[in-house]
Amino acid sequence: MKNKILVTGGAGYIGTHTCIALHQAGYDIVIYDNLSNSSREAVNRVSTLIDQPIEFIEGDIRDSESLRKVFAAHQFFGVIHFAGLKAVGESVAKPLMYYNNNVSGTISLLEVMAEYEVKNFIFSSSATVYGDPETLPIDENSKRSCTNPYGQSKLVVEHILEDLAVSDKHWNLITLRYFNPVGAHASGQIGEDPNDIPNNLMPYISQVAVGKLFKLSIFGNDYPTVDGTGVRDYIHVTDLAQGHVAALNYLEQQDSSEKNSSVGFLPINLGTGKGSSVLELVTAFTDVTGQNIPYQFADRRAGDIASCYSSATKAKTLLGWEAKLSITDMCADTWHWQSTNPNGYE
Ligand code: NAD
Ligand code: WQD
Question: Least buried of 193, 235, 285, 302, by fewest C-beta within 10 Å?
Fold first, then answer.
């Protein structure tokens, strides 16, 4: 069936938002997730938001037998592959766990896809594959290099996908390189729910705002940037979700075009093309929400870079997609989610 999509990791932060966008765009979805970093409650809320039950399978992408059962039971047009572990610090402490989950897991998924002749694939990669960029904005041809096992796991998968595209012209492998996803669904019902103390800036700010954390530490104020703090390309998770719908539409167009040409390995940045500093984000959050965010300057965080923002041209030209939501929307929606769900999905 052309509009049936398997969403691995669909119970997670970006996955849940994408499932809603896919449903709204007319796709049928099946979520496959081992719930290692998510909950049934997140899936239930997606179900409530789309006013329809969701087919959810609790399973691990490394479990080929379990995957085979899913592929045997459904005729998928393609797979959107979010499932993976994503904490940079944890990956340094537990590299084998990260390579096993993110690399071996993706190989096992691709093997089962090949068995069932499902060869449309959208992969969650990351701007982290660009390492410390030589030029800004970062376009898709920029040099790739990573300094931590999490980033390496994404880069290794990218190389696997490149090799796969060369080996067999029937594969269509879109690799979406996300910049810094933030924000939450406008309903306030789903959002980012870190297990522990957040590593990332926006969830840290929102937990300070809601009183769960005392003070933000800003890692470095001596970078060569607008105000000395790190600059990133924050992108609203709802825009990011729409980027996946645009990528699927693109695959469908290729599939039904007369030439039926294969896409091969196709990397595309999903970002806004604009950078914001840590201080700019803190100020925007306070302006939008009225919440004061106490902060202190601290040492630079190991492995951090000064600035990172995307060239968003390829996504616009090829997919007809561009980010629409502003930093104001990102802060307002984060706060809506955090203030109505101070303990996440608990
Ligand atoms: P998330 O942790 O919220 O979602 C990932 C989901 O995958 C979780 O629900 C988890 O339970 C599931 N999962 C993990 N390992 C699995 C396995 N072996 N089998 C089945 N399910 C498994 O993370 P997210 O922020 O939604 O990220 C989604 C994807 O996007 C990840 O691959 C991540 O590396 C990538 N990414 C995220 C960011 C970001 O900042 N959030 C940036 C760039 C790329
Ligand atoms: C943003 C800025 C920090 C926390 C990470 C991963 C990357 C990708 C997205 C998955 C930086 C500063 C942060 C804090 C701070 N994930 N900061 N105080 O590091 O750009 O990217 O998430 O693929 O791989 O590395 O995002 O939100 O952690 O940091 O001052 O408590 O905020 O130094 O300048 P980052 P981030």
Answer: 302
How high is the mean pLDDT of the chain?
Answer: 97
Q: In the prediction, which pLDDT does 63 show?
A: 98
Question: Which tokens go with 90?
Answer: 């944890």
Q: Kindly state whether residue 345 falls inside one of the protein's structural domains.
A: no
Instruction: Kindly tell me if the per-residue pLDDT of 148 is higher than 90.
Output: yes
Residue at 330: amino acid letter: M
Task: State how many domains the chain has.
Answer: 1
Q: Output the domain CATH number for residue 98.
A: 3.40.50.720
Task: Report the separation in Å between the CA atom of 339 and the middle of ligand 1, taken as the mean of its atom positions.
Answer: 23
Cα–Cα distance list, 18 to 44, 104, 245 (Å): 15, 24, 8
* DSSP conformation class of 214: S
Please give the average per-residue pLDDT across 83-97, as a whole number.
Answer: 97
Residue type, 298: A
Does any domain span residue 170?
yes
pLDDT average, residue stretch 64-87? 98
Q: What is the DSSP letter of 320?
A: -
> Per-residue confidence at 87, pLDDT binned at 50, 70, 90?
very high
In the chain, what percentage of residues exceed pLDDT 90? Answer: 96
Q: Which residues contact ligand 1 via a Cβ below 6 A?
A: 8-9, 11-15, 33-38, 60-62, 82-86, 101, 105, 124, 126, 178, 181
pLDDT score at 147:
86
Question: Is the residue at 215 inside a domain?
Answer: yes
Contacts of 42 (CB under 8 A, 6+ apart): 11, 12, 16, 190, 193, 345
What pLDDT does 1 receive? Answer: 52
Dist. CA 125–CA 294, nearest whole Å:
33
Q: Quick one: the chain helix, strand, coil %, rounded to 5?
A: 40, 20, 40
Residue 44's H or E segment, with its range, is helix 40-50
> Which 3 state secondary structure label does DSSP give 309?
coil
